[in-house]
């Protein structure tokens, strides 16, 4: 027998709902070869065994290109632009979140939100831009 069998009374790491983190536990009940109930060493609470969840993201996870993500966001916002009258961009115009802007260079854009006084973030077809406004 190479693998060590667990049994009642053995220490084990488990996720504790009271402590809201992975703590050391003692097995208090077993189901076949796996722990069923455990007691938390920290709060002394007994609960069903929850395996500690690995926080590391798998290496296979693909990174999302921000440009591609913005393009997708634009595609999803595009239908909501239909029928809206765009406001011509000007530094002396106030733009609210959700308003549609028409820029001489970038074309149609949706105001995503304010970045502070006199600055808004706008999503155009070719990506997000910071625009000055009133
Ligand atoms: Zn606990």
- Which spans of ≥5 residues are poorly predicted at pLDDT below 50? none
Alpha-beta classification: mainly beta
Our Rg estimate from Cα atoms comes to 27 Å
Percent helix, as a range, is: 10-25%
The major pleated sheet works out as: 5 strands, mixed
Q: How many separate helices?
A: 1
- List each distinct ligand once: zinc ion
Give the termini separation: 75 Å
What portion of the residues fall into strands of 2 or more residues? 35-45%
Return the average pLDDT rounded to an integer: 88
- Topology, number of strands: 9
Kindly give the count of domains.
2
Question: How would you describe the overall organization of this protein?
Answer:
- The termini are far apart.
- This protein has two domains: 11-48; 66-132, no CATH class.
- The protein has 134 residues and is mainly beta.
- The mean pLDDT is 88.
- Helices cover 12% and strands 41% of the residues.
- The chain has one helix spanning 66-81; strands spanning 11-16, 21-31, 34-40, 46-48, 87-88, 100-103, 107-116, 119-124, 127-132.
- Bound molecules: zinc ion (ZN).
- The site of zinc ion (ZN) has 8 residues, from loops.
- Zinc ion is lined by residues 16, 18-19, 23, 40, 42-43, 45.
Short characterization:
The protein is mainly beta and 134 residues long.
Write the topology of this structure:
Blueprint: E1 11-16, E2 21-31, E3 34-40, E4 46-48, H1 66-81, E5 87-88, E6 100-103, E7 107-116, E8 119-124, E9 127-132
This protein binds zinc ion.
Residues 16, 18-19, 23, 40, 42-43, 45 line the site of zinc ion.
